[in-house]
UniProtKB/TrEMBL annotation:
Residues 1-70, 74-138 form the Ubiquitin-like domain. It comes from the Eukaryota. It holds the Pfam family ubiquitin. This is Ubiquitin-like domain-containing protein.
Length: 148
């Protein structure tokens, strides 16, 4: 059977699948076809998130010509001044404050001392990450913390 997967940009892709296929298998097909890493994909059917854990398409009543929504998490590589690199995976709709809190939780760098630089620009404000570093072709990005 064929299903359609709609990317965040609105672009749709068609996949040939079997109803007994797992969600993980569908993610693998998307990775092969579109180059989007499986761990960054979140699939939804009629606003219901599709869980991996061995569940199949038929478990969600997905049939021929069903439309799945694909949300893509942003993989952020944080490079410190000492060249150490840390990885964060976050929803592009999240605000910069969420990323800063994750940095604080993981690295114990206080939010108020973080100065994030992306593409040579000091990023300030608390807008969604998609405003700063997300477009149709960018799901991975490198940022730096000034002074750390």
């Amino acid at each position: 059977m064929q299903i359609t997967v709609q990317k965040p940009t609105g672009k749709q892709i068609t996949l040939d699948v079997d109803s007994s296929e797992s969600v993980q298998s569908v993610k693998q097909k998307i990775q092969s076809k579109e180059g989007i890493a499986k761990d960054q994909q979140r699939l939804f059917y009629q606003d219901t998130p599709l869980q991996q854990g061995g569940r199949s398409l038929q478990d969600y009543a997905i049939r021929t010509n069903s439309l799945l929504q694909l949300k893509i998490d942003l993989k952020i590589y944080l490079q410190l001044i000492n060249s150490e690199i840390y990885t964060f995976i976050i929803d592009p709709a999240e605000k910069m404050s969420v990323l800063k809190q994750k940095i604080q939780d993981k690295l114990n760098i206080p939010v108020e001392k973080q100065h994030i630089i992306h593409r040579g620009i000091d990023v300030s404000g608390d807008f969604p990450l998609s405003n700063y570093m997300y477009d149709e072709n960018t799901y991975n990005t490198i940022i730096k913390l000034r002074g750390y």
